[in-house]
Amino acid sequence: MAKTKAKVEKLDPVWARILTEAEDAVRDEPLLGGLVHYSVLHHPTIERALSYRISLKLANGEMSEQILREICDEAHASDPDLALAARADIVAVYERDPACHRFLQPLLYFKGFQAIQSYRVANWLWRQGRQDLAYMFQMRCSEVFGVDIHPAAKIGRGIMIDHAHSIVIGETAVVGDNVSMLHSVTLGGTGKEEEDRHPKIGDGVLIGAGAKVLGNIKIGNCSRIAAGSVVLEEVPPMKTVAGVPARIVGEAGCSQPSINMDQLIRGGA
């Protein structure tokens, strides 16, 4: 057992840490034993645990947990990048959210993380030409988590969505790597146009609570969007924008705003 655990830790340190934390959680709170065993300890890999958790959350009378689990397993087997992105998302949440103290928490409790992993399966289905099934995943994700991400949207790795209530990401939106956003963020369009109509968010961007970014505009790498802002124009890299409509109010304040999570606007930003 010790040799097996050491091998898992070497090959997959994120999953190994989740297993250790799961064992600790059962020891500290035996009433959670069933939840933790079924969600984590019964599974040989993080891919299988993700499939179980997503299918359990999204299942309803119209689509059974078993069918959803088979779909998720197929997606993970076909595209290993899904689980690689999930690992990056777990680390991102742990490093940026002061309420997250263990890798185990996003997998079990955080709907932002769970919604992103549901989107990743929906996006895989979309890329396979299975649009109707992808839309079903989108619908259930919106109903269960309050997070509405079109399955055709393109989202990178290391994503942290804090609280994740009322998130909307449109069909042609692009979100880069290591992006952080808070609740009630909208990446939307500005009308009824059917072409490329949604924002392109660069790497390392921090989007504050309630911010609305509308239209096919570029948000430069490592920029900050203040809470409650409405962004209608392109934002250069490493800048802070605020207001309705948003205007540049200063520099980003640091090299990695999405990781530092500093949302205060000081003199010179």
From TrEMBL:
Keyword vocabulary terms for this entry: Acyltransferase, Amino-acid biosynthesis, Repeat, Transferase
Keyword Acyltransferase: yes
A GO term for molecular function: serine O-acetyltransferase activity
Keyword match Transferase: yes
Highest taxon, organism lineage: Bacteria
GO CC terms: cytoplasm
E.C. designation(s): 2.3.1.30
Swiss-Prot/TrEMBL catalytic activity: L-serine + acetyl-CoA = O-acetyl-L-serine + CoA
Domain Serine acetyltransferase N-terminal: start-end pairs: 14-118
GO biological process: cysteine biosynthetic process from serine
InterPro entries documented for this protein: Hexapep (IPR001451), Hexapep_transf_CS (IPR018357), LbH_SAT (IPR045304), Ser_AcTrfase_N (IPR010493), Ser_AcTrfase_N_sf (IPR042122), Ser_O-AcTrfase (IPR005881), Serine_acetyltransferase (IPR053376), Trimer_LpxA-like_sf (IPR011004)
Pathway assigned in UniProt: Amino-acid biosynthesis; L-cysteine biosynthesis; L-cysteine from L-serine: step 1/2
Enzyme class: transferase
Gene3D superfamilies: Hexapeptide repeat proteins (2.160.10.10), serine acetyltransferase, domain 1 (1.10.3130.10)
Sequence similarity: Belongs to the transferase hexapeptide repeat family.
Protein's recorded name: Serine acetyltransferase
Taxonomic source organism: Thalassococcus halodurans
